[in-house]
Design goal:
It is a single chain. With about 350 residues, this protein is of the alpha/beta class. About 40% of the residues lie in helices and about 15% in strands. The chain has an 8-stranded parallel barrel, surrounded by 5 helices. Strands 1-2 form a two-stranded antiparallel sheet. The N terminus is likely disordered.
Length: about 350
């Protein structure tokens, strides 16, 4: 009888922890299953997943489940998806009900697997449809998931709302969204500007905002201007140097440790700029290895850099479909991580495997 009681208490405790939320304090992230230990993670972006699932066909759902299962096997426990930019070349637009039903599926499947979801939103005018969706954004916490029947604000699988866009718009929406949903974190994206000339102004402003819980940066070297498609591999030493300089500067701004910092998108083209799965990934793998090494060092030193999401997992429902890994203005396949990219995936998996 005593053994049975211990088992039941253990199960009850596990259930309670599974229903908690990801939190941030003392400049670090904490996952509910291990609330006393700072969390360091690797993730991937599946920006097109809501659009893929909006079609409601069984093959898309089957593929999502298979992708989530594989990511779990790799030790990936954070996935970033987007609600904006989905309608490019499609009849659906941002915040279309079918898009939101796709997000319902993602949250439901993530909850079953202990995967955490970051939902990327645009503050102010969306660059894809040139309409402000701030009003719809503020209603999202009250949306009831059609599968779990929980409101979004009560979803333990939802890790953070990630805001991007004009700095003033992000600042304003962050405060309003935090008031609408006190359970979830607000990740404010400095975009590629976090590594640019105005990085000090942008990053210090976001770090000082009391409604912002996480500072997110985008390490896309060719977008930043640190590399060109014609010189992807020879640019690597320059990329390493500039990234280290930028992260050191941000750490100074963030001292004493105030906010956790993540790389919300880490991406690099395949060799020679090819966009198909047969192309090699020597240069991209070098960048991924560099990021993993920095993340591993931060974990060892209890630093502020606590996670990286690699851009972008191919959400195409079949291997012969157009690559579905990125949003405009990036070309299909430009940054895509194909399911067959074993070397890149092994590098990503090396981080959780090296956990103490």
């Amino acid at each position: 009888m005593r053994t049975l009681l211990i088992v039941l208490c253990s199960l009850f405790s596990t259930t309670l922890m599974a229903d908690g939320f990801v939190t941030a304090h003392d400049g670090r992230l904490f996952f509910p299953e291990n609330p006393d230990r700072p969390a360091y993670f690797v993730g991937v972006t599946m920006v097109k997943a809501p659009l893929t699932l909006s079609r409601g066909d069984k093959s898309s759902l089957k593929q999502l489940k298979a992708d989530f299962d594989r990511l779990q096997d790799l030790g990936v426990n954070v996935v970033s998806v987007s609600l904006c930019g989905q309608g490019q070349g499609d009849s659906l637009a941002c915040f279309d009900e079918k898009i939101l039903e796709g997000l319902d599926v993602i949250l439901a499947e993530a909850e079953r697997r202990h995967i955490y979801i970051m939902v990327c939103l645009t503050a102010g005018e969306c660059p894809y449809c040139h309409i402000s969706h701030d009003a719809e954004t503020l209603l999202l916490p009250q949306r009831r998931n059609t599968f779990t029947h929980k409101t979004y604000q009560d979803s333990p699988a939802l890790m953070a709302w990630q805001l991007s866009g004009n700095l003033d718009d992000v600042q304003a929406l962050a405060g309003r969204l935090k008031s609408a949903d006190s359970h979830h974190l607000i990740a404010a994206s400095a975009g590629t500007e976090g590594f640019g000339r105005d990085s000090r102004t942008v990053c210090s402003t976001l770090l000082a905002n009391p409604s912002v819980d996480i500072l997110s940066l985008e390490l896309l070297p060719t977008d930043i201007g640190w590399a060109s498609v014609s010189a992807l591999h020879t640019a690597m030493p320059h990329i390493y140097l500039k990234t280290e300089e930028a992260l050191t500067a941000i750490n100074r701004l963030n001292a004493p440790l105030v906010k956790p910092v993540i790389l919300g998108r880490v991406g690099y083209e395949r060799d020679k700029g090819h966009c198909h799965s047969a192309a090699t990934t020597r240069s991209r793998d070098a960048l991924f290895t560099f990021v993993i090494s920095h993340l591993r060092e931060s974990r060892s030193n209890a630093g502020a850099l606590c996670g990286a999401c690699f851009y972008g997992w191919d959400c195409a429902p079949s291997p012969d479909a157009t690559p579905f890994g990125e949003l405009p203005p990036h070309a299909p396949g430009q940054y895509t991580i194909f399911r067959s990219d074993e070397t890149s995936l092994n590098i990503i998996a090396s981080f959780p495997k090296s956990a103490p």
